[in-house]
Specification:
Blueprint: H1 2-13, E1 23-30, E2 36-43, E3 46-54, E4 59-64, E5 70-75, E6 81-86, E7 91-96, E8 105-108, H2 110-131, H3 138-158, H4 163-170, H5 184-194, H6 210-223, H7 228-239, H8 247-261, H9 269-280, H10 293-306, E9 319-321, E10 328-330, E11 338-344, H11 349-367, E12 372-378, H12 383-392, E13 398-400, H13 404-408, H14 410-416, H15 422-425, H16 427-430, E14 438-442, E15 448-451, H17 455-466, H18 472-496
Parallel strand pairs: 1-7, 11-12, 12-13
Antiparallel strand pairs: 1-4, 2-3, 2-5, 5-6, 7-8, 9-10, 11-14, 14-15
Helix pairs in contact: 1-2, 2-3, 2-4, 3-4, 7-9, 8-9, 9-10, 17-18
């Protein structure tokens, strides 16, 4: 039964196609008024405009010399639409504006005959499966599953030269051999190894189907361990089978790179770096043919800045002065089990909210004798504001920053006085401080073990690492909940307006 449901959902939501050729697309839509009708095609999960026609006497005709093979949609007023397969053939179909799928008749198009026959079959199987709900009859459910599987196999075999068969094949999960069905470990391994068997990644056309996007996302979200090295390994394994000049290659590389570049999950920026290094960089040998040189340079620069700051990397050394501007502190020499680097600016609105929370957390951690030291680095070039804030708010942790004279006479402090380093004075670049606050948690070896932190996530992380209970965490969670509710209510009010 689960197999039937899964298959039904997949096929109903996604469909795919391919091929180049001449098509005349003719549709008779009963109940359709004379109006503008759009033709749209999939690229990944989204539909994009392809053409416009004006319906006359319930008839819509699109005449195109060449259409890229894939799943298309006829979009009628009120965004009502139905999908169909485009391949190397003319298409003639009839339906009703009030029931596209139920009243669909395929007059001409072998691909769409197979496609809609299959949709109707799945509909009937779904109804049979629903009729068995509540019944303790596993045999009947198994019979339905077998009927679906046989239908799929026969359809693929009998129509192997049609794009519709490829669509169907893409929608089918790997079949687990009977001898390993009771072994979860072997079953998972087999499914993982054979996940892409029915997906022809050498065929550029599949990118013009939503099913490919869903299969891609499911694999990287659910199938493989959510570890950067594993994600990179399987990404390269799949992508390297594609034509590097194809739109499928472009879509897959861009989608995965952007997905992990913008991920809020700590550590996933490592995937962005590995994707950038393999497919985008270096600039003079880039495989990313679709991106202009300026954007490419920016992306590669971002990857270069991010690479030394990944989880597991040793945090760049910092030697900066405290508020006296004469006492230089090398955080590499601090003996603590943990160090928290906080880059902040007294003029930053988010910092003004976060720093008081950090003060409360710091106090509790010290009371619990957690071997951690906070090193707060002021990023404001006007040191006076930073120094005043530190003193007025009695920030008891280590406070360091650069100061005007050290910046103006960097050579003297680096080479003559030998109290700091160029990377330390350039810490905004070294640590890629594009916004504040930014926090890095490092261990006793100064390796980064946490980033993209706030007070709440830091407290949770330390609770886990030290196996302790942090009382202040409950307050932080309550505040976070209230803030989320406030934002949600604000969005609702804005939508009403």
């Amino acid at each position: 039964m689960l197999f039937i449901k899964r298959t039904f959902i997949i096929l109903f939501i996604f469909i795919t196609a391919n091929v180049f050729g001449q098509q005349n697309l003719n549709f008779k839509i009963s109940g359709l008024k004379d109006t503008t009708v759009f033709l749209a095609r999939y690229f990944g999960e989204k539909l994009y405009y392809a053409d416009t026609a004006y319906s006359k006497n319930e008839s819509v005709i699109f005449n195109k010399k060449k259409l890229i093979g894939g799943i298309y949609a006829v979009v009628c007023p009120n965004s009502k639409y139905f999908e169909f397969i485009v391949a190397d053939e003319d298409v003639i179909m009839e339906t009703d504006i009030n029931d596209f799928n139920g009243k669909m008749k395929v007059i001409k198009s072998e691909n769409n005959k197979v496609f809609y026959d299959y949709i109707m079959f799945l509909g009937s199987m779904k109804n049979k499966a629903m009729s068995l709900q509540g019944e303790n009859n596993e045999k009947k459910r198994n019979v339905l599953d077998l009927e679906v599987k046989n239908y799929q196999k026969n359809n693929i075999t009998n129509n192997k030269n049609l794009l519709a068969a490829k669509v169907l094949a893409m929608s089918i999960d790997p079949e687990i051999p009977d001898e390993i069905k009771d072994n979860d470990s072997l079953k998972y391994r087999y499914y993982l190894d054979h996940y892409w068997d029915n997906i022809d990644v050498s065929d550029n056309r599949i990118v013009h189907t939503p099913v490919y996007h869903k299969k891609l996302d499911f694999f990287f979200k659910k199938m493989i361990p959510q570890i950067p090295d594993s994600i990179c390994f399987y990404a390269h394994k799949v992508i390297d089978k594609m034509d590097p000049k194809s739109e499928l290659f472009k879509y897959t590389v861009h989608h995965l790179t952007y997905k992990y570049e913008t991920s809020n999950i700590m550590g996933m920026d490592a995937v962005f770096v590995c994707m950038a290094k393999k497919y985008y960089c270096p600039v003079n040998d880039s495989k990313a043919y679709w991106i202009d040189s300026t954007k490419l340079v920016d992306l590669c620069e971002k990857a270069d800045k991010t690479a030394p700051l990944l989880i597991g990397k040793k945090a760049p050394r910092l030697i900066l002065a405290d508020t006296s501007e004469s006492n230089w502190i090398d955080f590499y020499k601090l003996p603590n089990k943990y160090n928290l680097l906080i880059f902040w600016d007294p003029d930053c609105g988010h910092c003004k909210k976060e720093i008081p929370k950090m003060v409360n957390l710091y106090k509790e951690l010290k009371e619990k004798n957690i071997d951690i030291e906070f090193i707060a680095i002021g990023t404001n070039l006007e040191n006076k504001k930073w120094i005043e804030y530190v003193k007025e708010n009695k920030l008891q942790w280590i406070n360091i920053s650069d100061f005007p004279d050290a910046n103006e006479n960097a050579k003297s402090y680096i080479y003559e006085k030998r109290v700091t380093t160029l990377k330390s004075l350039n810490f905004r670049l070294t640590y890629d401080i594009f916004s504040t606050p930014q926090m890095y948690l490092v261990d006793n070896e100064k390796k980064i073990i946490g980033k993209k932190l706030n007070t709440l996530s830091l407290a949770k992380m330390l609770e886990h690492l030290e196996d302790i209970e942090i009382e202040y965490l409950e307050i932080l969670e309550q505040e976070s909940k209230k803030e989320k509710e406030r934002i949600a209510n604000s969005k609702k009010n804005n939508n009403k307006e």
